[in-house]
Amino acid sequence: MNRQGLTRRQFLEKTSAGLAAASVVPSRPTGGRTGNPNALALHGGTPVRTKPFPSWPQTSDLDEANILKSLRNHRWCTFDGEFIPKFEKAWADVVGTRGCVMTPCGTHALHTALEILEIGPGDEVLVSPFTYIATIDAIMLSYALPVFVDSDVRTFQLDPDDLEHRISEHTRAILPVHILGAPAHMDKILAIAQKHHLPVIEDACQGHLAEWRGKKLGSLGTVGCFSFQESKVLPGGEAGALVSNDQDLIAKAYVFRDFGHDPKRDGHYATRGTKYRISDFAAAVLMAQLTRLESVCATREKHAAYLREELKKIPGVMPQEHYPESTRQNYYFFGLRYNPEHFSGVPRERLMAALQAEGIPVSSIYPPLNKEPFIEQSLNSRGFRAVFSKERLAKYREQNHCPHNDELCATSLSLSHETLLGTKQDVEDIVEAMAKVHANAAMV
Ligand SMILES: Cc1ncc(COP(=O)(O)O)c(C=O)c1O
To answer: What is the pairing mode between strands 171-175 and 124-127?
Structure first.
């Protein structure tokens, strides 16, 4: 039941599908509150909800106890922290890899991955343009070129069928991003990687607990990278981790994280490195969060499954699709695409404003990163010009087109995962708001 006392079916009949038949005439914009539940909140109608969605991150007594324990035992750094090795072992067990090395954040896990695989100046890395900026920054900070593979608009993932033709003599790795907590097409990506002898770096920064054919993301490629930043489904403030089944790479990551310090010769430096060590406090919180991860994810997944089915019934709303081999998604964000043709041509930004006015926190997702100014700025920088010839940079610019990704960026929307952590009524509200805006689209 919604707050107007109608069942959802009755509500939908009165709004989108049954609008004409039921002769429910959407009210005109009035400029003030009408108290009319059928009028858009954007124009003064009663919003579908005013109650906030659950907040994030959430904590329990255990988070506090762990933080206090870490504080009081005065072992706060990477050398002696109690919780860091505990979390590294626990996360490797969850993901199903032989090793796990904590880093200060996911960006540094990605940078470490590139470093230990010896990817650097002059190299090319195949990557999805539909990602958070960190993925691309990690590549460019290594003075390598991110070669953008077009997106699959249905799944929001790197299109595996656009991958192989972008491989060149300079390609050194494939870096798929499991976007919004759903798996990229790992079968096709791994097959191409194997054929061309390329390592695969999984950006699983959003992909905690998600699975491809029953295997956890992060465990399928050469290395996997995670973020435990506060917004993530496993939050630890600011933290990250690199996982791998290759013990040699794990050992290299430990050395790189600690200035290249030689583990066999104290006080000596075996390799170039940096300081990507971390504080024990983040690991203390993560150990507590880990105990709740499965149950919180189960709630989110249950609500997401319902939301997906209900939203699909509204014309012009297309939830992110998942490949059949994708056995689990974590819904870090619930993604959808929007076709304005079914909403009287209302532009996406206006749709978002209408939904936000109804109390639903929707937002756009990513801009087309391959077209953002930082790309040209980097290519024109002294460092890149020293590494890459004019001809290579000209060719790069010429080939840097991802038309499907442009479409995806322009038509996609997301709901953050908190919206799925409350009650079924919360999810009903999201559907009700979308149906209401759809029914009133001519007025938006
Ligand atoms: C896809 C992706 N990659 C990398 C990162 C970087 O992680 P962090 O913020 O922990 O550096 C994020 C974080 O939001 C991300 O979403």
So the answer is: parallel
How sure is the predictor about 38, in pLDDT bands with cuts at 50, 70 and 90?
Answer: confident
Q: Is ligand 1 within 6 A of the CB of residue 128?
A: no
Mutate to test the pocket of ligand 1, among 56, 107, 365 (most ligand atoms within 8 A of CB): 107
Tokens representing 427? 């999810």
* 360, 48 contact by CB (below 8 A): yes
Q: What is the mean pLDDT of residues 209-215?
A: 98
Find where tokens 């038509």 sit.
411
Over 50: is that where the pLDDT of 174 sits?
A: yes
Cα torsion for 10, 15, 17, 23, to the nearest 10°?
A: 100
- Report the b/e string of 155-173 with b at 16+ CB within 10 A: bbbbbbebbeeebeeebbb
Q: What is the pTM of this model?
A: 0.93
Pocket test for ligand 1, best of 229, 278, 332, 417 (most atoms within 8 A of CB): 229
Contact between 387 and 396 under an 8 Å Cβ cutoff? The reply is no
d(CA 146, CA 144): 7
Quickly list H helices, 196-278: 247-257
CB-ligand 1 contact for 225 (6 Å cutoff): no
Structure tokens at 191: 């097959």
Cα–Cα separations (whole angstroms), residue 258 to 225, 233, 248: 18, 28, 16
Q: Which two tokens stand for residue 132?
A: 């958070």
Backbone CA torsion sign across 323, 325, 327, 332? negative
